[in-house]
Design a protein that fits this description.
two-stranded antiparallel sheet, transmembrane helix, single chain, mainly alpha
Length: 119
């Protein structure tokens, strides 16, 4: 199974290198459209930068993955909080059970107490 994963990663790396080599041309990346950048007060937002196309493509993929991961992490917060509270409740009940067993077995012989705990 490990070799299949390595083969898949190698094939993915080859595909990414081929895409990068095929898209080396520079493109202008603008933060605002030309018409909107001319409005008063929005000029400072109108930035542009020249980048190779493959960086724009891969950057878009990375940003999309990061947004998806953060969105999913925020969406699952309630499930993680519920699991943490259930785990804390289990630990509390385990401590209470040990304390109750210790009180129950304090007058018993040690051998009998050990036998009760084993069963």
């Amino acid at each position: 199974m490990r070799y299949i994963r390595y083969a898949f990663l190698a094939a993915l790396a080859i595909v990414l290198v081929i895409v990068a080599l095929a898209n080396r041309a520079s493109v202008t990346l603008n933060t605002l459209p030309e018409g909107l950048a001319g409005f008063p007060g929005l000029g400072w937002l109108g930035q542009s930068i020249e980048l190779p196309l493959y960086i724009v493509i891969f950057g878009g993929i990375v940003v999309g993955l990061l947004v998806g991961f953060v969105w999913e992490w925020l969406r699952e917060h309630k499930h993680r909080a519920e699991a943490a509270s259930k785990q804390a409740e289990v630990k509390k009940l385990e401590r209470e059970l040990k304390r109750t067993q210790a009180e129950r077995d304090k007058d018993k012989d040690e051998v009998l107490a050990l036998l009760d705990q084993a069963s």
